[in-house]
Structures are given as C-alpha cells and as structure tokens.
C-alpha cells in the first residue's frame, strides 16, 4: 500500500510483477508449478463469512476502534504448535494493532480503512470498509480449496508463531475440526550466522545468483541441504 501511494502504481500492478518474478524463479529452478495459486483479494467473501462465523460462535468481537479481533482466551489450547506459555504469547503479541483489545494476545481479523489508504486497497464488509488481517486469508483460502481438514501444512519456521498458531485457532474455532494433520516447517537460509532477510540488508535473490553464473541445480541442492 505504501509503495502504491509513493509510486502511483496500483497494488494489482505491483503484485502482478512480483508474482511473475516468483514464478519465473521457480521455473528457473525446475520447480513444478502448483495446482492452485489463490490470491487473497479473490477470497474476501470467504474471509467475511469465516469472521462472521467466529463472531457468532463467541470467538471474535467488534472492538470500539473498528477492528474485528479474535479472542485468544476463547481457545484454551492456543499455543499448542509453538509450545508457548501464555506469558510468551503476550510478549510476542502485536499489542499496538488495537488499543481496544479485551486481551493482549487477541489478534486482528478485519481492520478499518485508514485515511491515507486508497479505496482499491480496501473492501466493503459488515463492519465497514477495510481489509482483512494477514492470518484470516490463509484459513479462508485453504478451507475453500482443500476443505476443512487437510494432511500437510508447510511454511517457514519463522511463521510458527504467530501466523500458523493464529491460523489453527481461527480455523478450528470456525469449523470445530483439526486444521492440518502434519505441520512441516523449513529452516532459514543463513548468511554469516544470521538469517537472510530484507530488514538486515544481507539478502540476495535467486535471479541475481543465477545471473552471476550459479547453476540452478547447485542452488537447489544448497537450499535442500537444510
């Protein structure tokens, strides 16, 4: 959203370019294409239905500041994946997201449109114009495509908490079923003992490595060794 405002380029055009770069990189590494490639913006309706279900079941509430929040204490087994205590959960929570939380560990399902956000970045909902939190989209898309329960949920180990923990909570609270039977997490690529990340500025890209002469199969082997 910030880059769209800075450049005057629509969010759809920005993300289309990033998506194509990603697909080109996968092809260069001989990674088979996925069967489904859902886009969050195409599943807003499913997210709204899931949020409404959570509110009706008493797992979510509309806060005074316009945010719709998931009430973590409503799920007694929250923290089962990351094996975190309640104190650890509160310490890792994004308290600043909403000052109207009933509990410090509650997380956002829907956030109201901010004054500087363009209309094409937000959507109509029963709670006013806004956009979904970044956890609910995954639960809604996986349910629509894979069903209420599926076998393997994968992702980076940096997503275990809070993202995957929140996915479990909202999906299982909505459906009453186990979300995934097996969780499979990959480690991070490290540079000089630190995680490669954009924020640290110690990252390179697949494209840059391939253009420098690194073999695609060598790069695949390097990553898979972890």
What would the keywords be for this entry?
226 residues; alpha+beta; 4-stranded antiparallel sheet; two-stranded parallel sheet; 8 strands; globular
Beta-sheet strand percentage?
A: 5-15%
Quote the average pLDDT. Answer: 92
- What separation lies between the terminal Cα atoms? 34 Å
Which oligomerization state do the chains in this entry correspond to? Answer: single chain
Which of globular, elongated, flat, extended, rod-shaped describes the shape? Answer: globular
Structural class comes to alpha+beta
Number of strands: 8
Sequence stretches where pLDDT stays below 50 over 5 or more residues? none
Biggest sheet features: 4 strands, antiparallel
Spatial order of strands in the largest sheet: 1-2-3-4
Number of helical regions: 8
N-to-C SSE string, H for helix and E for strand: HHHEEHEEHEHEEEHH
Q: Which range best describes the helical content: under 10%, 10-25%, 25-40%, 40-55%, 55-70% or over 70%?
A: 25-40%
Structural Rg: 19 Å
């Amino acid at each position: 959203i910030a880059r769209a405002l800075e450049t005057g380029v629509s969010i759809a055009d920005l993300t289309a370019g990033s998506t194509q770069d990603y697909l080109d990189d996968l092809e260069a590494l001989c990674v088979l294409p996925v069967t489904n490639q859902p886009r969050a913006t195409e599943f807003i309706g499913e997210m709204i239905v899931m949020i409404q279900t959570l509110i009706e079941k008493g797992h979510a509430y509309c806060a005074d500041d316009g945010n719709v929040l998931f009430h973590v204490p409503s799920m007694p087994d929250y923290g089962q994946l990351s094996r975190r205590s309640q104190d650890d959960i509160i310490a890792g929570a994004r308290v600043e997201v909403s000052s109207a939380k009933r509990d410090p560990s509650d997380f956002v399902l829907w956030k109201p449109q901010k004054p500087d956000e363009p209309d094409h970045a937000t959507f109509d909902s029963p709670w006013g114009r806004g956009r979904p939190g970044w956890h609910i989209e995954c639960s809604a898309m996986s349910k629509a495509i894979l069903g209420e329960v599926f076998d393997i949920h994968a992702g980076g180990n940096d997503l275990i908490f809070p993202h995957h923990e929140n996915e479990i909570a909202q999906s299982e609270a909505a459906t009453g079923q186990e979300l995934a039977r097996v969780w499979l997490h990959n480690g991070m690529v490290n540079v000089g003992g630190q995680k490669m990340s954009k924020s640290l500025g110690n990252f390179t890209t697949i494209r840059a490595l391939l253009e420098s002469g690194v073999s695609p199969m060598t790069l695949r082997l390097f990553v898979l060794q972890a």
